């Protein structure tokens, strides 16, 4: 493969880095380096364009794929040659996609998600240009967390926008957008990602014994996705999940201060990442980006959580 490879914790790679005649060859090597060993071919003649935004977020990897139509296969021969063991989730954001594995076919429209397993053959098919967010986690860890023996019963099943797993998909879509504009903020908000993938696997398998835990994870994903809305209230969160305020408070009984404090801390963590990343950014701009009603509220909450004013924090964060 000629050209840069995704070896860092985050980066962008595009077929624009090579001559048009070599674009698909470069793309094929790029997706093999980023995911697992794959065979691939374009679905249409002519110019091929592709772009990856890849982030290694410690407990999982996340990649936004923008590309022309293609057919990608994980074959038995490639599995035997390189036995990477991952659970992957494809979340469609533009165009249409199809995932085939274990005798099933998942048709994906924007907002929908499907899981697949790198230890068995699968096919991804895209007739035309598309965009997906792909989340990749070690398979054995996911099985251990959920108690499942394998993922055969949940692969290539379309998980809808309005299903419980749709909340998980929404979280990763929001995280991927943030990754392109604020990588430090994305890293801060990615702490729930692995647990949410386990939740998606459990939900797809029809597991319900740990329903309270799964509901709390869904709510935490919702808070991460919507924390920048200054009008978001506890009542809004309860309504979004069709539960009472009392039930919401019970779910977060183990968190000091409850769900309201969890939301404030998500906002403060995002603010800290922005202050580190852009020391010259005005404080009122940081406040708005993180969902605070104004600079005064931002100052008060930030000081309560950190013991420092935003300005003091910014002055010490580079030391």
TrEMBL record:
Residues 217-316 form the HTH araC/xylS-type domain. Keywords: DNA-binding, Transcription, Transcription regulation. It comes from the Bacteria. Gene3D superfamilies: Homeodomain-like. The keyword tRNA-binding does not apply. InterPro entries: AraC-bd_2 (IPR035418), AraC_XylS_family_regulators (IPR050204), Homeodomain-like_sf (IPR009057), HTH_AraC (IPR018060), HTH_AraC-typ_CS (IPR018062). PANTHER family: ARAC SUBFAMILY, HTH-TYPE TRANSCRIPTIONAL ACTIVATOR RHAS-RELATED. This is AraC-like DNA-binding protein. It comes from Amycolatopsis thermophila.
